[in-house]
Amino acid sequence: MGMEDYTKHQQKIIKRYYENIDQISLQRLSELVADLYLAEGVKKREKLWESAVGCMQKLGVPQTRIDHILAQKKPELVANLVKEMMGKE
After folding, report:
1. DSSP state of 32
2. Which of 18, 36, 57, 74 is the 20 to 30 A CA-CA neighbour of 1?
3. Which residues contact 44 (CB under 8 A, 6 or more apart)?
4. If you average pLDDT over residues 54-75, what whole number do you get?
5. Full-prediction pTM beyond 0.85?
6. CA distance 49 to 9
7. pLDDT for res 1
C-alpha cells in the first residue's frame, strides 16, 4: 500500500508522525519509566521492558547500553537515559 492510496490529509498526518518519531519515542519511554516503577507481576514487567527496549532502539541508543540497562533491569537507569536525551542532565 503506497502513499497514493491515502488522501492528502492522511499523507500529511503520516508525514508529521515520521518527522516527530524521535519525540514520540522519547515521550513513550518516559511514560514507561513510571509504568516500570509501578508494575506488579512478572509478565507485566517483562512486557514493559520489551516496550522500553523497542523505544530505545528507535531512538538510536547503542545496543551495548540497552544490554546494560536490560541486565540491571533498574527503571532509574531508563530514567537517567531519558533525562540525558532530553538534555536535562
Report:
1. H
2. 57
3. none
4. 94
5. no
6. 35
7. 61
Give the DSSP per-residue string, 33-73: HHHHHH--SHHHHHHHHHHHHHHHHHTT--HHHHHHHHHHT
Domain limits of the chain?
8-86
* 49: its cell numbers: 521492558
Instruction: Give the chain's length.
Output: 89
- The residues, ordered by sequence, that sit 6+ positions from 33 with a Cβ below 8 Å of its Cβ are 75, 78, 79, 82
Does residue 56 carry a pLDDT above 80?
Answer: yes
Residue that is written with C-alpha cell 547503542 in the block: 62
| Residues 48/39, Cβ–Cβ less than 8 Å | yes
